[in-house]
Design brief:
Layout: E1 2-7, H1 19-22, H2 27-41, E2 44-49, H3 53-65, E3 70-74, H4 83-92, E4 96-100, E5 122-125, H5 130-157
Parallel strand pairs: 1-2, 1-3, 3-4, 4-5
Length: 169
């Protein structure tokens, strides 16, 4: 399974930025934990971080071209403002899980809504950096279930070999 991990704006500052809110883990710590879990789950991860909305949109669009199976995204502040990210995610039609380190509902009211949550396969909010691991685990399960369903569907479409259908000349 190939999964794109996207870290949105200001997440490059984790460990330094408001540790009382975001904790002391750095983005490198999170990526390392994701890499370890990805290995266990059989996931090939590609990670990126950008403070630029257009760069994130481009990465989402490229995910389809690179035949990624899914996306794990922490859109950060763009969750509350970006129709462009929503449109990009809809355009690639890949399952994705939205992750937020903090409980956005326990913060300022403008953080209570997300342009992505209603189209996401899942949303993880408020578990700190562990939320990324929960999100990756959930996305891997979703992708595995789709794979199993696709295989079962293909098998059910194959013609059955019955004794009457087999000729023994």
């Amino acid at each position: 399974m190939k999964i794109l991990v996207i870290h949105g704006p200001n997440l490059n500052m984790l460990g330094l930025r408001e540790p009382n809110i975001y904790g002391s883990a750095t983005l490198a710590d999170i990526d390392s934990s994701l890499s370890n879990l990805g290995e266990e789950l059989g996931c090939d991860l590609e990670t990126m971080q950008s403070n630029i909305e257009g760069a994130i949109v481009y990465a989402i669009q490229e995910a389809a071209a690179k035949k990624m199976d899914g996306i794990l995204i922490n859109p950060a502040a763009y969750a509350h403002t970006s129709v462009a990210l929503r449109d990009a995610l809809l355009s690639v039609n890949l399952p994705f899980v939205e992750v937020h380190i903090t409980n956005t509902f326990a913060r300022e009211s403008y953080r209570h809504s997300s342009y992505l949550s209603d189209i996401a396969s899942g949303v993880i909010i408020g578990f700190g950096p562990m939320g990324y691991l929960l999100g990756l685990s959930g996305l891997a399960q979703i992708l595995n279930a789709r794979h199993v369903f696709r295989e079962a569907s293909q098998e059910s479409l194959e013609p059955e070999q019955t004794p009457e259908a087999v000729s023994s000349d």
